[in-house]
């Protein structure tokens, strides 16, 4: 069977040249025929590439302006390109219009004998690209992960070819990931586009390639003060610009941490906004689409009378965001900035509450977003589950306040920031299929139209493929039938082993529901439920450690009607059961492609199980130290060493995670525990030799651990 795939070639000499011609396009200029031809021709090239992988299929690409093809064919167009197609498209397909929403598309079919012709008509070039991938998906292709062996190519195309008459628009306009590093491989960026995701980091290199894929860029955040109002440049002449704390102006700002600026000082806001705009015009961030205007992360707030009069921290950061947005609009009016750049402010920690004051006159609601971060949440329950009175209920009230409270003056759009791989998770195999199935429709229902998560890994996903694939699918369609999606995922990823692997994922998600209090923190009130500061200490009978502070996470099984979650012992038991299922499938598999996928699954799962075993053994050491029982604690320390050294040998699966701080980049599984120093101290206490404690002695400096938060 010979297919033709057609697209506009625009100013290029051929479709093939246009498809790889992103370096010849000025992506900072207003969009025109070259931008459109590049993306649409790339979509055509992608369709040709994947169709040609099917046995018995030959494919050629061509310019839609030059030929009226015989079926089977695919024509990839936008309304602008449709006008240049010499009328043959309208003659054969009739009048076709895509939905009005940005990124939307329509797919139509004509039947000519036993062959079919397909029209993919995008509202814009993004819609045409996504429509092409949707057509390929309907023909049997899947992109389950960025690695080549995670691509599913059907053994044959459907017979007969499907008759498609459909239109789609995205449920969430902005869909992707949060971070700040240049770490997206071409394979990963392609996976994003193939799954209709469109938000990535402005730090990424090869930006023309990203723009061809219709990716938007995000930057800024906690570090904007370090970048745009650095105290080493301004503090000596303008100490009044900086934080007043205990009667003293403080200019300590280290990247995204330290003392916030004095938000009531109009001059520091003006200078910061001007520097930001110059960066957006001609600096490193001249590609940015969304600038994040945030306070410092857990920073100290100015105590001057002017800042107190401004209102709460949310009022203060909104004032800075207003000045930044107005500076952007001025630059647009003056012709200095050729694109619109929206700003977002965070609802995060101290800025979770809604503002208490009226917004400044002329506040641009349309150009300002609020990103609601769910970092305090648990994943044992959906975000709005009333049974989670200890953690999620309070967070959900803050979220609803931003959209439903009539006293909230902010009327801009809502962005959600999730944490499916928060830094301390360190790329553990934690599925979120059930959580996302409930939460993402809820986020849409409260008005959110933008969503990302921290911190996606970019290769060797293994079990993480399910989270990322479902995340992408639900952001495109919040009404997704998640159970049907799960079954489709299992069928395409594991083929004849789908039933057993479905059982494995169900067990794994059940086991890891308490991942937040176990491997991060949870709760709005301080001190939050967090094992890190507790287990880094050594208790005694006279001063015992209180380890289990959350109702969600007890040591042993406990029946609870509210705030339920698996106990530590239940987590271990369920992981053991999941391991038996996975090991059996891994032993039985004969399909080479499925075996490669399972190898990724097995490695990530074993790393995860070892991590939980490490925490279990460390907890038992501390519990026995509470009893002043060094003999039994020493035996537990030996068991801890076994699993700790196994984690030290694992140095791949956590390597592709982004983190905003040095301690979020892990050398190996042991540093990913966040207990490397505590581990070395325990080994030294009980005379156990490890690479960190030769002869059972701590090295000079008290232990090798640069990964503490």
From TrEMBL:
UniProt-listed SUPFAM superfamilies: beta-N-acetylhexosaminidase-like domain
An annotated Gene Ontology molecular function: hydrolase activity
One BP annotation, GO: carbohydrate metabolic process
ATP-binding recorded as keyword: no
Residue span of region Disordered: 690-709
Gene3D superfamilies: Chitobiase/beta-hexosaminidase domain 2-like
Keywords tagged on the record: Hydrolase
Pfam family membership, one: DUF4838
Protein name: Alpha glucuronidase N-terminal domain-containing protein
């Amino acid at each position: 069977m010979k297919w033709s795939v057609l697209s506009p070639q625009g100013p290029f000499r051929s479709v093939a040249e246009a498809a790889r011609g992103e370096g010849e396009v000025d992506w900072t200029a207003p969009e025109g025929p070259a931008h459109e031809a590049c993306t649409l021709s790339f979509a055509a090239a992608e369709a040709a590439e994947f169709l040609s992988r099917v046995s018995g299929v030959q494919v050629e690409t061509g310019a839609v302006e030059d030929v009226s093809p015989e079926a089977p064919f695919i024509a990839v167009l936008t309304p602008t390109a449709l006008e240049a197609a010499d009328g043959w498209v309208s003659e054969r397909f009739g009048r076709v219009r895509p939905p009005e929403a940005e990124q939307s598309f329509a797919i139509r079919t004509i039947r000519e004998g036993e062959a079919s012709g397909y029209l993919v008509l995008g509202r814009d070039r993004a819609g045409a690209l996504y429509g092409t991938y949707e057509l390929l998906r309907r023909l049997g292709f899947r992109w389950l992960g960025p690695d080549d062996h995670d691509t599913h190519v059907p053994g044959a195309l459907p017979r007969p070819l499907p008759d498609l008459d459909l239109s789609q628009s995205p449920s969430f306009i902005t869909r992707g990931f949060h971070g700040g590093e240049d770490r997206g491989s071409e394979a990963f960026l392609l996976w994003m586009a193939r799954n209709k995701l469109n938000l990535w980091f402005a730090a990424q290199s090869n930006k023309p390639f990203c723009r061809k894929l219709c990716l938007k860029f995000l930057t800024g955040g906690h570090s904007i003060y370090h970048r745009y109002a650095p105290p080493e440049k301004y503090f000596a002449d303008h100490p009044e610009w900086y934080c007043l704390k205990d009667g003293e102006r403080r200019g300590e700002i280290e990247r995204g941490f330290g003392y916030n600026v004095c938000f009531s000082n109009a001059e520091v806001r003006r200078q910061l906004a001007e520097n930001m705009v110059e960066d957006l015009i001609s600096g490193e961030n001249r590609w940015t689409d969304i600038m994040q205007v945030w306070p410092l992360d857990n920073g100290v707030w100015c105590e001057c009378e002017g800042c107190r009069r401004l209102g709460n921290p949310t009022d203060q950061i909104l004032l800075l965001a207003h000045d930044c947005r107005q500076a952007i609009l001025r630059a647009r009016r003056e012709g200095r900035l050729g694109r619109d750049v929206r700003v977002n402010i965070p609802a995060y920690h101290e800025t979770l509450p809604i503002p208490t004051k009226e917004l400044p006159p002329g506040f641009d609601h349309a150009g300002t977003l609020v990103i609601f971060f769910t970092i305090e949440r648990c994943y044992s329950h959906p975000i709005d589950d009333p049974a989670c009175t200890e953690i999620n209920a309070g967070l959900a009230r803050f979220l609803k306040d931003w959209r439903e409270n009539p006293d909230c003056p902010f009327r801009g759009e809502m962005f959600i920031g999730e944490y499916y791989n928060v830094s301390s998770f360190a790329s553990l195999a934690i599925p979120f299929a059930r959580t996302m199935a409930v939460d993402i429709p809820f986020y849409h229902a409260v008005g959110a139209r933008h969503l990302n998560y921290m911190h996606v890994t970019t290769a060797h996903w293994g079990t993480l493929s399910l989270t990322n694939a479902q995340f992408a699918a639900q952001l495109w369609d919040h009404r997704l039938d998640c159970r049907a999606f799960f079954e489709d995922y299992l069928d395409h990823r594991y083929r004849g082993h789908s039933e057993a692997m479905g059982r494995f994922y169900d067990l794994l998600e059940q086991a890891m529901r308490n991942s937040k209090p176990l491997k991060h923190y949870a709760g709005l009130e301080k001190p939050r439920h967090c094992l890190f500061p507790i287990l880094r200490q050594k208790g005694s009978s006279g001063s015992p450690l209180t380890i289990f502070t959350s109702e969600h996470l007890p040591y042993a099984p406990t029946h609870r009607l509210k705030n339920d979650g698996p106990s530590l012992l239940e987590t271990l038991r369920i992981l053991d059961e999941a391991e038996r299922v996975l090991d059996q499938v891994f032993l039985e598999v004969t399909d080479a492609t499925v075996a490669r996928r399972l190898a990724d699954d097995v490695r990530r799962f074993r790393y995860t199980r070892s991590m939980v075993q490490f925490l279990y053994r460390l907890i038992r050491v501390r519990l026995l130290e509470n009893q002043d029982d060094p003999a039994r604690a020493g035996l537990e320390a030996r068991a801890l060493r076994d699993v700790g050294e196994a984690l030290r040998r694992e140095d791949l699966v956590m390597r592709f995670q982004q983190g905003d701080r040095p301690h979020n980049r892990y050398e190996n599984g042991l540093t990913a525990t966040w207990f490397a120093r505590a581990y070395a101290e325990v080994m030294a206490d009980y005379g156990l030799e490890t690479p960190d404690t030769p002869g059972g002695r701590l090295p000079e400096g008290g232990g090798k651990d640069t990964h503490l938060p």
